[in-house]
Amino acid sequence: MLKHLAIKDFAIIDKLELDFSPGMTVLTGETGAGKSIIIDALHLVLGGRAVTDVIRTGSDTAEVTATFSVDGAVRERTGQRLKEQDIAVDDGELLIRRIVSRSGRNKIYVNGTLVTAAVLQAITSGLVDITGQHEHVWLLEPDTQLELLDAFASLGALRTEVASQYGLTREIYDELRRLKLGEQETLAREDFLRFQVGELKDLAPQAGEEEKLAVARKRLANGERLRTAVAHAEESLYSGEQAAVELVGAVRDSLQAFTEVDDAVAPMARAVGEAQAIIEDVSRSLQKFMNRIQVDPEKLAHVEDRLEKLRRLSRKHGTTADGLVGKLAELEKELHGITNRDERGKALEKELGQARKRLGELAQDLAEKRRRAALKLVHATLEELGTLGMERASLQVAVEPLPQKGEGADLTVDVGEMTKRVGPRGLDRVEIRFSANPGEELKPLAKVVSGGELSRVLLALKRVLAQRDPVPVYVFDEVDAGVGGAVGESVGLKIKAVSALRQAMCVTHLPQIAAHADHHYVVEKVVQDGRTASRVTRLTADQRVEEVARMLGGLTITDATRTHARDMLRHARGAAA
Question: Range(s) for CATH 3.40.50.300 in the chain?
């Protein structure tokens, strides 16, 4: 739900902060007071187009901030979208801030992260449905109409099964299509693979080989210098004239002669003797190591050549030297698939036939259930429209085959004696069509010209779908256009009923609708210091009586209109109970 909306320097609003609650909220006030400006501001933080015209005169920027709390399926869906954009996911809260600047340096923040308008639209899609601004009416989108029909008919499990079977069938189909590439192209690929496999087999790379070769090359390249250094060390320690071992031995013997003179000499003599033994051990190790040192230019050349080949093929295949072993296996597998393509092709044809048959059965079952559900949805919606003063309206929920052209149009299934295109959501596209008067052509909802008619159709649909529609916030911007009296009362009752299942906000001029609100705000236009501004006040019970009376009686409010207003509010509370 929408928890908080802050607006600054937007149109005639200088500064405004509103807290919202669950249930039904209405905004009322005189024409031009700024009611719809609040809806425009909300539309902006949902990804609407930003224009500098919205910036208040005398200001450089306009700013709108909205805080939403999300839970259930909406929280899961929104959280996934945030993760896809690497945006921090707060615990059940979504904070959106949008700044429009005269300089054109507009900024959008979602949970503190700077994003584009396109990303904002993706994140907020399905979060708020604003009836009255076509570009944000979720129900006008054909894809949404299909989703809602399936939700109305509780077809989620079958839809998931169809999507899964479609994915499996598509995978087999695509593999078979790749297998059936033009013969010339396939043969060229086969020759290319044979060359690459042969090249790697000739090299026969081994895991860890590059590191071992690098160590060997370093040792061979420095063999002569290393041999000289080791020989010098051994000579200095043991075999040369005045070698360290002799000098240390002499020191040991000298100290040993005085061990009986002073007890403190004995430990020092032993330590010198241990040093002599260590020198002898090191000298023997140096002699052995010197014998192993290789000075072999031919072997060095071989190691360097091998190392260069490994690194060249690594660069060629875009992997490491250790990765060449896996690359060889990968290329051999592909080559095997090509050389055995006839056998594999027959197996895939059989698999595809079985997968297509199962997909066709599931998709046909889904299509039939959709058609039956469409009739029920039409009946329920027409009943709602009848109470909204549209008794003679016609409605159709058309469940039609997918067009033959489009994404995935090459994947088809046999249904009876017909071949039909199929997609991940089955065989169908859904479109809701409407006509207000007998004899008029049924048109898609998005092409209904009358705003009042469209608003009532959408309200009726939302009333029917309220338990299944995943959108958590409904906004009705002057949904009362063209209605009044008993129809207005019915509109109020329906919005009230919808608000029991999700947050509903309504901009209205009708007291019959305003009386049903749980929360009532009045929007007023005031002049301060020569500047016009909008002010919004949350009304108390007594103030609501005055506002409803104003809506009933106009400029002159009498005791009779106040009594009428009290009766209307009392009646609305009784209807809600």
Answer: 1-127+472-536
